[in-house]
Design brief:
The protein is mostly helical. It has one domain (7-131, 148-396). Helices cover 69% and strands 2% of the residues. It is built from 17 helices and 4 strands. A two-stranded antiparallel sheet has the order 1-4. The protein has a two-stranded antiparallel sheet with strand order 2-3. This is Acyltransferase family protein.
């Protein structure tokens, strides 16, 4: 790869912003009526339309960017080296997270949902022994669990798949990338990926609702793996990114229009029988996929236009964002339970949760990055190693 190739700084900035959006989103999950680990006494539907602004596309965008970044890494290091590096960087934090970072989340969940009265130590004995008895009706808590770290498990599995494809296709990978870059022009930029995402949603979502268990989550695989592979194939197509930039306002308008349709649809149909909804549900799923893809195009287009620059902040935040991601949801759950006795108004409490989660996550990151034995547990490469330098290097595009 040409060392003078233009650098895709904007993808790093978008990834940083998307992970920080997760903090806002998961704080919001404490206050909405949707199922989550713990719930505020003030939980209701008031902010659900705001949550819907990002829920269709946020994670898909992260998978697309992850595919793009991995594509460049495969080109530079080769499949074997990438698999070894990514396995160490993803699997160790995943296992550590499942047994150290995540457990407070299901502990407070069973305290709240099934009135568990044991201590945290008693709970951990049940947790590590895969106790199956924390149930509400047919809904039982699986333990041990990765909770929000499911993204890490999926990213590792997709890394293995992409490395295998890259090795099997050889030079044909670049030809496939070039063909896709030539094909996705004009209306096809929107229509062709939309067709794949919409068909997957209409055909698979009923049969395979979201589980995040990796094995039986076939709709999510059809969704996220499609975007991951798209990112990997299109990363080295600079003309495609310029086309997306030109579409940014149109894509934003379509995404917002779709959101304005989805919000009243869900409000109207939430108490209806599925038979009464009929074909409207399939139409809603097409609109949802259109919202997802156009929002991703809009974010990438505006990012390409306005975030194509480097700074010391990017270097710092690129290393911080993964440890912050690992920590943030557990901190939200712990802080929410600590703040309950204060009985604060939800707007005040929510703001405090966001501030304390951000400062707490970055505070822990500052400690971890200075303690060499802790760095691998949070996905931070040892200081000075090539992987550490790669974390701080931007995604690069073909010349």
């Amino acid at each position: 790869m040409n060392d003078r190739a233009p650098r895709l700084y904007f993808l790093d900035w978008i990834r940083i912003c998307a992970f920080f959006l997760l903090i806002l989103y998961h704080t919001g999950m404490y206050y909405v009526s949707w199922d989550w680990h713990v719930k505020s006494p003030h939980a209701g539907s008031a902010i659900e339309p705001l949550m819907m602004l990002s829920s269709p596309w946020r994670l898909g965008l992260l998978f697309l960017i992850s595919g793009a970044a991995l594509s460049f890494l495969l080109q530079k290091l080769g499949g074997g080296a990438v698999v070894r590096q990514r396995s160490a960087r993803l699997l160790l934090p995943l296992v550590f997270g499942m047994f150290v970072i995540v457990p407070p989340q299901p502990y407070f969940e069973v305290v709240e949902k099934v009135a568990y009265g044991g201590s945290y130590l008693d709970f951990m004995r049940l947790y590590v022994s895969a106790y199956p008895g924390f149930c509400r009706g047919d809904d039982c808590l699986d333990m041990p669990t990765w909770n929000h770290l499911w993204f890490v498990a999926y990213l590792w599995a997709y890394t293995l798949l992409l490395a295998g494809l890259f090795a099997a296709l050889g030079a044909r990978w670049q030809r496939l990338s070039d063909w896709l870059g030539r094909t996705l022009t004009g209306w096809r930029i929107v229509a062709l990926p939309l067709a794949v995402l919409a068909i997957a949603r209409v055909a698979l979502l009923n049969r395979f609702p979201t589980t995040h268990d990796l094995v039986n989550d076939w709709y999510n695989h059809a969704n996220y793996l499609t975007l991951f592979l798209l990112g990997a194939l299109l990363a080295r197509q600079p003309d495609w990114w310029r086309r997306v930039e030109a579409l940014r306002f149109a894509a934003l308008g379509i995404a917002l229009a779709c959101w304005a349709i989805l919000v009243p649809y869900f409000a109207i149909t939430q108490h209806m029988d599925l038979g009464d909804v009929g074909l409207w549900r399939d139409l809603q799923r097409v609109i949802y996929a259109l919202c997802q893809w156009c929002a991703i195009l809009a974010v990438c287009g505006f990012g390409h236009r306005h975030l194509q620059f480097d700074s010391a902040k990017r270097h710092y935040l690129t290393r911080a964002v993964f440890p912050v991601y690992i920590l943030h949801q557990t901190l939200i759950v712990l802080l929410s339970q600590a703040l309950k006795p204060a009985a604060l108004p939800p707007a005040t409490e929510g703001l405090i949760l966001v501030v304390l989660t951000l400062t707490g996550s970055f505070g822990i990151f500052e400690v971890v990055r200075r303690v060499p034995p802790l760095r691998p547990l949070f996905g931070i490469a040892p200081a000075g190693e090539p992987a550490d330098r790669a974390d701080r290097a931007p995604v690069r595009a073909a010349a």
